[in-house]
Amino acid sequence: MKIGVIGLGYVGLPLARLFAEKYNVVGFDINQTRVDELNQGNDFTLEVSKELLTSVLKKENNQSVGLYCSTSLEDIKDCNYYIVTVPTPVDKHNKPDLTPLYKASETVGKVLKKNDIVIYESTVYPGATEEDCVPVLERVSGLKFNTDFFAGYSPERINPGDKEHTVEKILKITSGSTKEIGFKVDTLYKSVITAGTHLAPTIKVAEAAKVIENSQRDINIAFVNELSKIFNLLGIDTQDVLKAAGTKWNFLPFKPGLVGGHCIGVDPYYLAQKAQEKGYHPEIILAGRKLNDSMGEYVASQVVKLMIKKGITISGARVLMLGIAFKENCPDVRNTKIVDVIAALKDYGIEVVVYDPWVNTAEVEHEYKLKAETVLPEASFDAVVLGVAHNEFLNMDFKSLQKEKSILYDVKGILNVNVDGKL
Predict the structure, then answer these.
(1) Which of 55, 105, 253, 290 has its CA 20 to 30 A from that of 23?
(2) Out of 69, 79, 133, 263, which one is annotated catalytic?
(3) Residue 263 falls in the annotated catalytic set
């Protein structure tokens, strides 16, 4: 058995590392710099430690067990399992963009052989694997689906930055294009996933299960975001309300906030797109997305209102934004909604200084045309906004960063100090 993992990002690398403990694994990525860094034991995403990565790395592709990373098709041509773990983003109109998935399928199609199994992990709408990806595999390879080659779907459940719920400790959904292939896919994952597996009856069921996981969270967060707006108007502390309501055994403990990242802020659009193709307009899903997408501008408006109440001149004011990653203690800046807050503040004529010790500044510059500082600026500001709950921010001396007439706004609602405003 030889496994090829296509895409070595936040999902692919941890999975490849795990499989490499028992199997011969080739990690394939089109980014040569990324591959070179990984072969030296360095993972900039910080999902896999240097110790863990180097423990499974092999120097030559022909070794029997371990991980070899490559950009060459030659190194994956003799694999019999291909696992696709590329991103599935949306475009500027929030329409699903399957381009990375199509390109990855073309790559696999070039080396696909008789009896090979292609497993997709990327989050998609129900039907994407068999209706969108498989035709690409057939066209490029010249082979026939479910006769010459087979497919499976096992949705990723990676939680970036979470060192407790690592890939092997999260129960895995599996599926196959036939009953027999479903059993093979399930057996493969079961051999490394200590939390166990759940074999879904069809690929479409597995796809649907994944996309509703994130849609459900998105809707629940939208609900508490709306509550935070209402309670703010009523002069009630939202965190106090949630704490009180949480004393009931079946109350769901969701908190308000900015919904970014590669899953929750994106996946509901995939399900909505498929529903609309079938003539159904998903009101609740899209309403939740609309509300959550508006929160960046809402936070900015609340900051500005508090500044005005303190008599701070808005035009030309300086604001320190603490954090630009999409979540705490993680360098991941994909689809971060902090940039929405920054853009809205800039529209008011405010200068925003971004400080985040976790992120890759070059990536922030490339993705968002923003400069991020990784060293705390020695200056005072008209406002300090806690946007991300990195550990480094929790016990900061905020007073040293503020002017005499200044505000502190806590987007995450977690600081144990007096703040002027919080979500």
Answers:
(1) 105
(2) 263
(3) yes
d(CA 344, CA 298): 9
Distance CA(100)–CA(113), nearest Å, equals: 22
26-53 burial, b at 16+ Cβ within 10 Å, e below that, comes to bbbbeeeebbeebbebebebbbbeeebb
pLDDT digits (tens, 9 = 90+) for 387-397: 999 999 988 99
Is it the case that residue 97 has pLDDT exceeding 90? yes
Mean pLDDT of 278-293: 95
- Sign, CA dihedral 99-104-107-112, equals negative
Q: How confident is the model at residue 417 (pLDDT cuts 50, 70, 90)?
A: confident
Q: Taking the C-alpha atoms of 297, 303, 306 and 310 in order, what is their torsion angle to the nearest 10 degrees?
A: -140
Which single residue is written with the structure tokens 């999975």? 15
In angstroms, the CA 250 to CA 274 distance is: 32
**Predicted confidence (pLDDT) at residue 95 exceeds the cutoff of 80:** yes
Q: Count the Cβ atoms, other than its own, within 10 Å of residue 128.
A: 24
